[in-house]
Specification:
By secondary structure, this protein is an alpha/beta fold. It folds into 2 domains: 96 residues, no CATH class; 212 residues, Vaccinia Virus protein VP39 (Rossmann fold, 3-Layer(aba) Sandwich). 38% of the residues lie in helices and 22% in strands. It has 12 helices and 14 strands. The strands form 4 sheets. It has a 7-stranded mixed sheet, sandwiched between helices. Strands 1-2-3 form a 3-stranded antiparallel sheet, with helices on one face. A two-stranded antiparallel sheet has the order 4-5. The chain starts with a strand and ends with a strand.
């Protein structure tokens, strides 16, 4: 929920996720166009040194007016209603506070699907789409694969896999009950039959509970995008991340490797003989993660790069 007030003209703007209301007791009208609103917002954000992605301001105006991109780009000089302009300005005020645009919009697109997001969940990143691509490649020839997504967050990995492979048995696990509410909402909106459970990767009995969850079927793919940013790196990441996104989904231990150690053990306990462990990693941690998996006894370890050539994914197999 965002709240903004302009006492001089007695405007009070209350912006809710699905409800907007503008109160203007004096009936003052302020005429402005889409182009002017965008230019003004760009200037405000630039003056405040807030980085703005291409089309970000446009997205916020599209949401404020509930119009299509075609309508905006075809008619940039159309006057915007006072109520819509106030909603837009409330959005910009939140952006000036370094709130991510995805939280302001309430959604983000991932792997061709639209996911609800809020501050209870990490915002899905484009590089995580590569995790989904490699996951689908690895289970392409497996009939009714059993897939477990640890630290599911929004459910973007689990739901995207289930969407592409309706025959798969997909389980999404997270320690956060609030995150699981978001994941379930996304599954409902996208008609995705994923099984959700609240649990802790660091729990001593996690392996047994996973076996019970899968009804003792061996897991074909254990996939995860775990927390991997070390505390000392906090100052190097954007305020949008450390100020607004859930810290438990971002920050790891001082080594950045504890979650990978837990995943390695979980894989040894639950994966089939041909099962796979697929994880997203910090670009600087590939050797550390590979070392963890090698020490745990995995036979084959592969790494995959993102479009910029940086190592972002590690795949481990139990059997060579």
């Amino acid at each position: 929920m965002g709240l903004s007030a302009k006492r001089g003209n007695a405007f009070v703007v209350v912006v809710y996720r699905s409800q907007r209301k503008v109160l203007n007791p004096y009936g003052t009208n302020r005429v402005t166009t889409r182009r002017k609103l965008i230019e003004s917002a760009r200037k405000k954000l630039s003056t405040a040194s807030v980085p703005v992605a291409a089309k970000e301001i446009d997205w916020l105006l599209l949401e404020a007016e509930s119009i299509s991109p075609v309508e905006l780009f075809s008619n940039p000089n159309v006057e915007v209603s006072e109520s819509d302009a106030q909603v837009f300005e409330a959005f910009i005020h939140r952006r000036l506070a370094r709130e991510p645009v995805q939280y302001i919009l309430g959604y983000t697109d991932f792997y061709g699907l639209r996911f609800v997001v809020n501050p209870s969940v990490l915002i899905p990143r484009p590089e995580t789409e590569l995790v989904v691509e490699h996951a689908l490649d690895q289970i392409a020839t497996t009939k009714r694969p059993v897939v477990v997504d640890m630290g599911t967050g929004t459910g973007c990995i689990a739901i995207s896999i289930k969407h592409a492979r309706p025959d798969a048995l997909v389980f999404g696990i997270d320690i956060s009950s609030d995150a699981l509410l978001v994941a379930k909402e996304n599954a409902d909106k996208l008609n995705s039959n994923v099984v959700w459970r609240e649990d802790d990767i660091f729990s001593d009995s996690i392996s047994e509970r996973i076996r019970q969850l899968t009804r003792h079927e061996s897991v074909d793919l254990l996939v995860s995008n775990p927390p991997y940013v070390t505390p000392r790196e906090k100052e190097t990441i954007e305020p949008e991340v450390w100020m607004h996104e859930p810290s438990e989904a971002i920050f790891a231990d001082v080594t950045g490797l504890n979650a990978y150690r837990a995943l390695a053990q979980l894989g040894l306990d639950t994966l089939s003989e041909s099962g796979l462990l697929l994880v997203e990693i910090h670009t600087d941690a590939v050797q550390g993660v590979e070392g963890v998996f090698t020490e745990a006894g995995y036979g084959i370890i592969e790494r995959f790069s993102d479009l910029s050539g940086k190592d972002r994914i590690v795949l481990a197999r139990i059997r060579a």
